[in-house]
Specification:
globular, disordered N terminus, mainly alpha, 2 strands, two-stranded antiparallel sheet
């Protein structure tokens, strides 16, 4: 049944169960296509499906969900800046891993949509997101947090960072 026609109580219960299962809640500001704030992540749903958060489980949804979290945490960045950097770093593949560059040679390969190494991911992890660097929303949000600290915003990144 589409979310719009589900009873309010059923939607609230689904969000509550999802939050309990993840152990962490992320309140997301409604964006285009989302009618209410919601919690949890969508990475367990089929690609393109609408998850508990109301964001599609695809690149557009991951960016939009990350932007909502970033807005709550005061992390600057735009859809275009994030998308541009994802296309350069991983071509939109959340399972991308770089096994050939200098980081990989040192034993810390770059991972995920924005090719973040584990120490950077851990240092710039954003509370309420997954601790898995391959989780698209966690990867985007941590990378944008790092880019904000180092360059002012992911929007100011135009090459490898």
């Amino acid at each position: 049944m589409p979310a719009a026609t589900q009873p309010r109580r059923a939607r609230r219960l689904a969000r509550t169960l999802a939050v309990a299962a993840t152990g962490a809640a992320v309140l997301a500001l409604p964006l285009i296509g989302a009618s209410t704030a919601s919690a949890a992540t969508t990475t367990g749903t089929a690609p393109g499906a609408i998850g508990v958060t109301g964001y599609p489980n695809n690149l557009d949804g991951w960016i939009r969900e990350s932007l909502a979290i970033m807005a709550l945490k005061g992390i600057p960045g735009s859809y275009d800046g994030i998308h541009r950097n994802i296309m350069r770093e991983s071509s939109g593949n959340p399972a991308a891993i770089n096994l050939w560059d200098s980081n990989a040679a040192k034993g810390t390969p770059s991972k995920g949509l924005l090719q973040v190494i584990d120490p950077t991911f851990q240092a710039y992890h954003v509370a309420g997101t997954s601790f898995d660097p391959f989780d698209p929303v966690a990867n985007i949000t941590a990378a944008c947090n790092y880019a904000a600290a180092r360059y002012g915003s992911i929007d100011n990144v135009f090459g490898a960072y």
